[in-house]
Design a protein that fits this description.
Shape: globular
Helix content: 40-55%
Radius of gyration: 14 Å
Structural class: alpha+beta
Largest sheet: 4 strands, mixed
Order of helices and strands: HEHHEEEHH
């Protein structure tokens, strides 16, 4: 990971990435190792895994995973943004990483039931 981006992460409370972004930044395909490399200096690292759900790690914390909901997927446009909003909803209410991750997965999953990025947002 480049020094410049590591400096930015030190100023980041929650870092949202998808699996491809995580691999490019860390050089590692392993979700566990990638998150461990990113969850430093107080940053909560979150990786969105699409149909496989998501995972998150807070520096010094336990790796948390949440499976995607089994919904009739119509369109994934905006699912990542809906996930981010759901995670932040839980996080800003002090629910902890595990519950915030679950909130994100529920919002992201449910948003795929309609066309476009907004039709099915919870």
């Amino acid at each position: 990971m480049g020094r410049g981006i590591r400096e930015t992460f030190r100023e980041t409370s929650v870092l949202f990435l998808n699996a491809v972004e995580m691999e490019r930044i860390t050089g590692d395909r392993s979700v566990d190792r990638g998150l461990r490399a990113l969850a430093t200096h107080g940053t909560v690292a979150v990786v969105k895994l699409g149909a496989r759900g998501a995972a998150a790690l807070e520096a010094g914390g336990k790796l948390e995973r949440a499976p995607a909901l089994d919904v009739g997927v119509l369109d994934t446009t905006g699912a990542g943004d809906a996930f981010d909003a759901g995670f932040l909803h839980g996080w800003l209410r002090d629910c902890g990483v595990r519950e915030a991750l679950r909130c994100g997965v529920v919002c992201g999953s449910l948003s795929t039931r309609g066309l476009g990025g907004c039709a099915a947002q919870p």
